[in-house]
Amino acid sequence: MNNNANELRKQSEDALKKELNSLLREGFNLRMQKATGQLSHSHKIGEVKRNIARIKTVLNEKAKGGAQ
């Protein structure tokens, strides 16, 4: 799920919030796998973090009403 910001800006706020929630859960699960030594693809943690940041940025833009 590699979304860029332009694709995210086209989605509704509700869809973005649902996606954010699922990414937060995925991030938690990945951190638990890392802690127990079961994580085989450690790069996934960084990808999830970046996607969370992208979604939060777009949500903040929409909240301020200034989507460029």
What does this structure look like?
- The protein is mainly α and 68 residues long.
- The chain has one domain: Helix Hairpins (Orthogonal Bundle).
- The protein has three helices and no strands.
- It has helices at residues 5-9, 13-35, 43-64.
- Helix 2 runs antiparallel to helix 3.
- It is elongated.
- The two termini are 23 Å apart.
Protein traits:
68 residues, mainly alpha, 74% helix
- CATH class (first level) name: Mainly Alpha
What's the main sheet like?
none
- Beta-strand share of residues: under 5%
Number of strands: 0
The portion of residues assigned to helices is over 70%
SSE ordering: HHH
Number of helices, where a helix is a run of at least 4 consecutive DSSP H or I residues: 3
Structural domain tally: 1
Distance between the termini: 23 Å
Secondary-structure arrangement, i.e. CATH architecture? Orthogonal Bundle
Categorize the overall geometry: elongated
Tell me the Rg in angstroms.
Answer: 13 Å
Q: What's the average pLDDT?
A: 90
Fold topology:
Layout (H helix, E strand, L loop, with lengths): L4 H5 L3 H23 L7 H22 L4
Helix pairs in contact: 2-3
Summarize the structure.
Helices cover 74% and strands 0% of the residues. The chain has helices at 5-9, 13-35, 43-64.
